[in-house]
Amino acid sequence: MSNQQVTLTQFIIEQQRGLPDASGTFTLLLNNIVTACKQISHRVNCGALIGVLGSAESENVQGEVQKKLDIITNDIMVKALDWSGSLGGMASEEINDPIKIPKQYPKGKYLVLFDPLDGSSNIDINMTVGTIFSILRCREGIEPETEDFLRRGTEQVCAGFVLYGPSTMLVLTTGNGVNGFTLDQDVGEFILTHCNMKIPEESSEFAINMSNQRFWEPPVKRYIDECVAGEDGPRGKNFNMRWVASLVAEVYRILNRGGVFLYPHDLRDPSKPGKLRLMYEANPMAFIIEQAGGLCTTGRERILDLKPNSIHQRVPLILGSKNEVERIIAYHQQD
Ligand code: F6P
Ligand code: MN
């Protein structure tokens, strides 16, 4: 093994050195998130051996049945972050209201929003899951209310996700490109392995849950019909399809070999404009995808420009290779 390896800590400290007012708080915050993710990685990896699989027989704020690991991973994130003095508050997919910093700890200048275990329907079948996070600045000294979290994705200072797959990987942006780090389990450090990730502009792979086809709107139907028609259709080439049912895994694949992911608006339930959540799924992924040269949209609006109206707001989500997403946006405009 080469001795030229760059650890995540070194990478972040070197990036922060370039910023005039950096105080080290951000480095500490990221370090705490990463520590939590290493603990989660360990639990996910041990699985049935430590009795963490299966349902918790409770529901979260979205009305979804919680897995034991949804609750365990949420607790790990909260406990790793609440004491640090770097946060004004947190918000989690698993908790209805913003999570306050306990009185005994100082409050800091950032807010973190997270999905502690994305793709958790995959957990019992030993498929890839992940943790997604988004970091915003917070006015110092305030006790943040829900409104303080409801900021556009363009205001994110950092977004990332950790993938618990065959390797545990962290993908990160602070607005200066996207980098990937692989956890060296023996030394417990994330090592820079994927520098400046860029999504290929052209691709011939799509990801969508085809079982919802009858509920899609015409622009999405048209796009997928044309892909499925392959060489014989208007696109004149064959497409491949993937669906992992784990957003982290789909985004990671797209970062590496291009393609599009769609969880579009559909007509199943008028109270739900989409399935995925803006604040801790769509926004962080949009920041990463755009930083890697891709696009991320509802079909009609850029995700990062949306003005949020609630912490658990759902949005249609279409992301991936630039040329394909531009085509899908054009189909929506022609609709
Ligand atoms: O967090 C929601 C999520 O699990 C995503 O990770 C994934 O992309 C999607 O839901 C899967 O949806 P479905 O169950 O409809 O396939
Ligand atoms: Mn999720």
Q: Helicity level, as a percent range?
A: 25-40%
Q: β content, as a range?
A: 15-25%
Give the overall form.
globular
Strand tally, please? 17
> How does the helix and strand content classify structurally?
alpha+beta
Low-confidence stretches: none
Biggest sheet record: 8 strands, mixed
| Spatial separation of the terminal alpha carbons | 55 Å
Helix-strand topology string: HHEEHEEEEHEEEEEHEHEEHEEEH
The hetero molecules present are: 6-O-phosphono-beta-D-fructofuranose, manganese (II) ion
Gyration radius, in Å? 20 Å
Number of helices: 8
The overall average pLDDT, rounded, is 95
Strand order of the largest sheet: 4-3-5-6-7-8-9-10
Enzyme class: hydrolase
Binding site for substrate: 118-121, 209, 275
InterPro entries: FBPase_C_dom, FBPase_class-1, FBPase_N, FBPtase
Cofactor: Mg(2+)
Structure in words:
The chain has helices at 8-17, 25-46, 68-81, 146-149, 218-229, 247-257, 278-291, 322-334, and strands at residues 55-59, 65-67, 87-92, 99-100, 110-118, 129-137, 158-164, 168-173, 178-184, 189-194, 205-208, 240-241, 260-263, 276-277, 295-297, 314-315, 317-320. With 335 residues, the chain is of the alpha+beta class. The strands form 4 sheets. It has an 8-stranded mixed beta sheet, with helices on both faces. The longest helix has 22 residues, at 25-46. The chain is globular. Manganese (II) ion binds at residues 115, 118, 247, 281. GO terms for molecular function: fructose 1,6-bisphosphate 1-phosphatase activity. It is an enzyme of class 3 (hydrolase). It catalyses: beta-D-fructose 1,6-bisphosphate + H2O = beta-D-fructose 6-phosphate + phosphate.
